[in-house]
Write a structure and sequence with these properties.
The chain is an alpha/beta fold and 531 residues long. It folds into 4 domains: 216 residues, 3-Layer(aba) Sandwich (Aldehyde Dehydrogenase, Chain A, domain 1), CATH 3.40.605.10; 191 residues, Aldehyde Dehydrogenase, Chain A, domain 2; 27 residues, no CATH class; 39 residues. It contains 18 helices and 18 strands. A 7-stranded mixed beta sheet has the order 10-13-14-9-8-15-16, with helices on both faces. The protein has a 6-stranded mixed beta sheet with strand order 5-4-3-6-7-17, sandwiched between helices. Strands 1-2-18 form a 3-stranded antiparallel beta sheet. A hairpin with a 4-residue loop joins strand 11 and strand 12. Helix 3 crosses helix 4 and helix 9 crosses helix 10. The N and C termini lie far apart (92 Å). Bound molecules: nicotinamide-adenine-dinucleotide.
Length: 531
């Protein structure tokens, strides 16, 4: 029995309930957060078989891939978060770097944002919905999770089973398509975390304007690979083909197209059939280990782009090209004779998001960098391959992109300490590990000053301190505002920070003693103390 979409009419009440739970303070205690993280982890352990089956139905995805890229990564995120949560919520003490703040407590504290909306996508539907959810609840938020309708079986499983594990008063799961998303976007949230394409991202941003809601956009784009003449070609081909055919190319950080230096192009092409055989045996179409395209719409989009490209003079298939509409299968397909010119080459227009890999041969890496920059659309990933560090640095510094991996692909996503996110057309904001915790938190500055010791403030009150000719004002002015030429001011500031500021750590005690001493002299002078 198919699971029905969440009724649109129920959506305002559902969001209001999540807000009521947040306002009642259910989500803020660390105990609640830990409980939810454990519950999500529990779901991922106990429902492993069901998740694997659902993803097999949706994408014909082999178990090992689902285990690593969906279930495993989400489990690791839960465990990592549970391990570090105490550190992340602890107030972060900072230095005021000035005598003016020597008596103060200065802290950055992370507070929850409120009720967050997480809109997930279909290609890794567990990873891309549950890791944001893990991060949201770790930061103490209530959350509404909107599942993608495209990976039907996984969405149905999540909507049926996840509520059995998590606290339903503060974590709501919504299943549906555009009308349900639209109804959600009319509600007030404190953050919208969207994963998907750049067209819908614009719809999300427009909707967010109404309530001045911040957005995190995790998008994609045409992520390039640039293979240098000094690259280890057999290893490069193996890694690139692995990343391109994983999930049948339906990965946001998949290599979209590959620049190969002319001098090594022949070797690059020669390696491709060998690698395809290593990955999927003699016939990927018959391999149980090869994922299918998610829907007929995406299958037809990919096939028509490929067929249009094959009509361009000079374009040839190096490997693959076969497809099976009934199975929604497209072989890993490598094309040569392609150029960067998107007007001539249909494969260079949009993000491919499928197992088609155009190869562009090049002479001069400066021209490659200029051509990618000229598009003005930074991709989510950038992959230089070379044994020469200077080449890698040149590409890293020359091309904008969300994330870079040199001599490999995809792998940085699993490193919890690296932020994952795009820039420009590939998105805004980032997450994973502590970076995600900060994204789902409000960083509040908290300054606690002594209630007494008014003498320290005297200089700021107009009648006392605003006499700029006074000696003490001059001292304060030099210490705080440094009315000197810029370089002298920087040198003074550096000297102060390195040599004088560290002396302030015992300042509260010293100043306390000095003020006590001063007060006793004043009291003695006023005759309040006689001995
Ligand atoms: P999709 O069609 O599933 O859309 C994502 C979500 O947006 C779904 O929940 C859907 O219901 C909702 N949606 C669709 N149209 C909408 C509308 N008009 N108004 C409101 N909501 C709407 O996903 P997709 O866009 O096909 O996903 C593929 C794209 O996502 C690719 O560009 C890929 O690179 C990108 N992606 C990015 C990441 C990342 O982490 N940066 C991960 C995976 C995919």
């Amino acid at each position: 029995m198919p699971v029905p979409y969440t009724p649109v009419a129920d959506i305002p009440r559902l969001v209001a309930d999540a807000r009521a739970a947040y306002d009642a303070g259910f989500t803020k205690p660390l105990a609640w957060r830990r409980q939810q993280l454990r519950a999500i982890h529990d779901f991922l352990v106990k429902e492993e078989k069901a998740i694997n089956e659902a993803l097999f139905k949706d994408l014909h995805r082999p178990e090992a891939e689902t285990m690593i890229y969906d279930i495993g990564m989400a489990r690791n995120a839960a465990v990592h978060t549970l391990e570090y949560l105490d550190d992340w919520v602890a107030p972060e003490r900072v230095s005021g770097e000035s005598v003016a703040y020597a008596m103060d407590r200065l802290e950055v504290r992370r507070f929850p944002l409120g009720v967050v909306l997480i809109i997930g996508t279909w290609n890794y539907p567990i990873n891309l919905t549950l890791i944001p959810l893990i991060t949201a609840v770790a930061a103490g938020n209530a959350a509404v999770l909107k599942l993608s309708e495209v990976s039907v079986n996984t969405a149905e499983l999540l909507v049926r089973l996840l509520p059995k594990y998590v606290d339903n008063s503060a974590i709501k799961v919504v299943y549906g398509a555009v009308p349900e998303s639209t109804a959600l976007l009319e509600q007030r949230f404190n953050l919208i975390f969207y994963t998907g394409n750049a067209v819908v991202a614009r719809v999300i941003m427009k909707a967010a304007v109404k309530h001045l809601t911040p957005v995190v956009l995790e998008l994609g784009g045409k992520s390039p690979v640039i293979v240098d003449k000094d690259a280890n070609i057999p290893n490069a081909v193996k890694r690139i083909m692995w990343a391109k055919s994983m999930n049948s190319g339906q990965t946001c950080v998949a290599p979209d197209y590959v620049y190969v230096h002319k001098s090594v192009a022949a070797q690059f092409y020669a390696e491709i059939p060998k690698v395809a055989k290593i990955l999927y045996g003699n016939d990927p179409a018959k391999s149980e280990l090869y994922t299918r395209i998610v829907s007929d719409r995406h299958f037809n989009r990919l096939v028509s782009t490929l067929d249009a490209e094959l009509k361009v003079p000079g374009v040839e298939v190096v490997y693959g090209g076969n497809r099976d509409a009934k199975e929604r299968l497209i072989e890993p397909t490598v094309l040569r004779g392609v150029t960067q010119d998107a007007k001539k080459h249909p494969v260079m227009k949009e993000e491919l998001f499928g197992p088609i890999m155009p190869v562009i041969e090049y002479d001069d890496v400066d021209e490659v960098i200029a051509a990618i920059r000229a598009k003005g659309e930074p991709s989510l990933a950038l992959y230089p391959f070379s044994s020469n560090l200077k080449f890698i640095e040149k590409v890293v510094n020359g091309v904008d992109a969300g994330n870079v991996i040199a001599n490999d692909l995809i792998m940085s996503l699993a490193v919890e300490n690296l932020p994952f996110g795009g820039v420009g057309e590939s998105g805004m904001g980032s997450y994973h590990g502590k970076h995600g915790f900060d994204t789902f938190s409000h960083k509040r500055s908290v300054m606690v000053r002594p209630a007494g010791l008014e003498i320290l403030n005297d200089a700021r009150y107009p009648a006392n301190g605003y006499n700029r000719r006074g000696f003490w004002y001059k001292v304060v002015e030099i210490l705080l505002f440094r009315p000197m030429p810029t370089d002298t001011s920087i040198a003074f500031s550096t000297f102060w920070r390195r040599n004088i500021s560290p002396l302030f750590s015992p300042a509260p005690i010293l100043i306390g003693l000095a003020l006590g001493f001063y007060a006793s002299i004043r009291a003695r002078a006023a005759g309040l103390i006689s001995h």
